[in-house]
């Protein structure tokens, strides 16, 4: 029989008190089993795992299962996955992907080589990611639609930064959209808590307070300060990614598709102009800027995006500002005049619906593009005679506007000559003739292929993302 105890309010023993005041059994049920879900196909790959579509056998709802890959099981559960789970459990916003459940898959047989269980993160199923939509040749965004997506993206980003969270992998493939017009920020595998001031209206973020790893953000969306190896960065790195996504929605494809970090910087200087003490104070003192001497150039953002209007260009300039200390923040970007001009942003429920479009659907979409009829004689696919490398406009019915091909553009010089304005990088992979240069070529090519390998990048980054 239980002995009374003065430590419990009703005078019973701690065990009896715990039994009498336990949580309802339905309040916490732990992890689900993978058998509770019916897998329906692979959607893509996140920073540290695969993503599958599935249907819940209990509720019938469509969900996405993110498989957490254990590259080195002896090291324990990946810290990046722990961070992602922790952040998603803490965050709650209409434009942030919600973590609904965790599911576990145990080894099915005693002879199974895999001894440890596999964990899955369960989130609501979203019909598209932005990268898949932009690759779909049947999808053509109008300006009012882009404004709606941008407002939702900035609202989600403001919420993250208000809660001291850096996403650190802002890109089109990590923005999910459903057929109700809702956009959500996903893939928090590189996200972390930010130890610094939160953005405020009319105030710049300024300098960061502590060092973080520089091995974050996919290269095409990586800001120049990270490419120059700034370690004390701020929420401004996410804002740069939003600018790249905005330009991608306007242009129909990535606007800064560099093949290396050095090439990425060159593309940024081409677009925004060469860095100076006025446009990017302190860039020379960064580790990656000490020995750089980029050629002087004014930047071609104005001419490259002129068909989208002065409002879009003004917002792009603010989002892609070279000076990270004074780059616009999400709070001020939401109040930008661009969103108050005609055409006004559409409401999410007014947006069109599309067939499912994800990152892994690109091959299907590219096959469709290859099957399109050829361009008319005397013209360039999707471009008028005066175009400068831009895709079809917002209201264009041109079915070729966003074909993913390289189309060189030209600019008239004062002397009346014509030169390429956006040549491809020089092809240094052409086989050299001499024996010594041939050996050097093979060695550089092997090094380059390893550096471009996704597996190599994943293994290299795994050790660095711990900070």
TrEMBL record:
One protein family per Pfam: Pkinase
Residues covered by the Protein kinase domain: 37-339
Residue ranges with Polar residues bias: 1-15
InterPro entries: CDK, Kinase-like_dom_sf, Prot_kinase_dom, Protein_kinase_ATP_BS, Ser/Thr_kinase_AS
Primary localisation category: nucleus
SMART domains (UniProt xref): S_TKc
Catalyzed reactions: L-seryl-[protein] + ATP = O-phospho-L-seryl-[protein] + ADP + H(+); [DNA-directed RNA polymerase] + ATP = phospho-[DNA-directed RNA polymerase] + ADP + H(+); L-threonyl-[protein] + ATP = O-phospho-L-threonyl-[protein] + ADP + H(+)
EC annotation from Swiss-Prot or TrEMBL: 2.7.11.22, 2.7.11.23
Region (Disordered): 1-25, 393-467
Molecular function GO terms recorded: ATP binding; cyclin-dependent protein serine/threonine kinase activity; RNA polymerase II CTD heptapeptide repeat kinase activity
Listed SUPFAM superfamilies: Protein kinase-like (PK-like)
GO cellular component: nucleus
Localization, UniProt: Nucleus
Keywords recorded for this protein, A-Z: ATP-binding, Kinase, Nucleotide-binding, Nucleus, Serine/threonine-protein kinase, Transferase
Keyword Flavoprotein (UniProt): no
Binding site for ATP: 66
Biased composition range(s): Basic and acidic residues: 411-445, 454-467
Homology family: Belongs to the protein kinase superfamily. CMGC Ser/Thr protein kinase family. CDC2/CDKX subfamily.
PANTHER family from the UniProt entry: CELL DIVISION PROTEIN KINASE, CYCLIN-DEPENDENT KINASE 9
Protein name as annotated: Serine/threonine-protein kinase BUR1
């Amino acid at each position: 029989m239980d002995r009374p105890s003065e430590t419990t309010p009703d005078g019973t023993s701690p065990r009896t008190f715990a039994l009498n005041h336990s949580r309802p059994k339905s309040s916490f049920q732990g992890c689900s089993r993978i058998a509770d879900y019916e897998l329906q196909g692979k959607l893509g790959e996140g920073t540290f795992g695969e993503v599958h579509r599935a249907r819940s056998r209990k509720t019938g709802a469509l969900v996405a299962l993110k498989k957490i890959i254990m590259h080195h099981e002896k090291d324990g559960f990946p810290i990046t996955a722990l961070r992602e789970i922790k952040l998603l459990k803490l965050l709650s916003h209409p434009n942030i992907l919600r973590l609904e459940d965790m599911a576990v898959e145990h080894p099915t047989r005693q002879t199974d080589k895999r001894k440890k269980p596999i964990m899955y993160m369960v989130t609501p199923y979203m019909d598209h990611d932005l990268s898949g939509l932009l690759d779909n040749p049947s999808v053509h965004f109008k300006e009012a639609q882009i404004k709606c997506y941008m407002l939702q993206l900035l609202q989600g980003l403001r919420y993250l930064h208000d809660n001291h969270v850096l996403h650190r992998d802002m890109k089109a493939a990590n923005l999910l959209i459903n057929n109700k017009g809702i956009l959500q920020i996903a893939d928090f595998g590189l996200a972390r808590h930010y130890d610094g001031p939160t953005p405020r209206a009319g105030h710049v973020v300024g300098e960061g307070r502590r060092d973080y790893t520089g091995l974050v953000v996919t290269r095409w969306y990586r800001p120049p300060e990270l490419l120059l190896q700034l370690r004390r960065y701020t929420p401004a790195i996410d804002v740069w990614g939003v600018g790249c996504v905005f330009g991608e929605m306007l242009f129909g494809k990535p606007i800064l598709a560099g093949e290396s970090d050095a090439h990425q910087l060159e593309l940024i200087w081409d677009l925004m102009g060469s860095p100076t003490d006025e446009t990017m104070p302190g860039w020379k003192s960064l580790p990656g800027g000490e020995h750089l001497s980029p050629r002087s150039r004014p930047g071609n953002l104005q001419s490259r995006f002129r068909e989208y209007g002065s409002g879009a260009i003004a917002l792009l300039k603010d989002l892609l500002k070279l000076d990270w200390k004074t780059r616009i923040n999400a709070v001020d970007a939401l109040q930008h005049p661009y969103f108050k001009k005609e055409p006004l942003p559409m409401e999410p429920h007014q947006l069109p619906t599309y067939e499912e479009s994800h990152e892994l659907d690109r091959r299907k979409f590219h096959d469709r593009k290859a099957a399109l009829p050829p361009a008319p004689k005397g013209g360039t696919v999707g471009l008028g005679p005066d175009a400068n490398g831009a895709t079809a406009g917002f209201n264009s019915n041109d079915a070729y506007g966003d074909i993913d091909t390289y189309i060189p553009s030209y600019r008239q010089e004062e002397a009346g000559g014509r030169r390429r304005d956006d040549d491809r990088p020089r092809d240094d992979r052409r086989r050299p003739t001499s024996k010594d240069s041939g050996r050097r070529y093979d060695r550089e090519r092997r090094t380059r292929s390893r550096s471009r390998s996704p597996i190599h990048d994943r293994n290299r980054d795994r050790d660095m993302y711990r900070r």
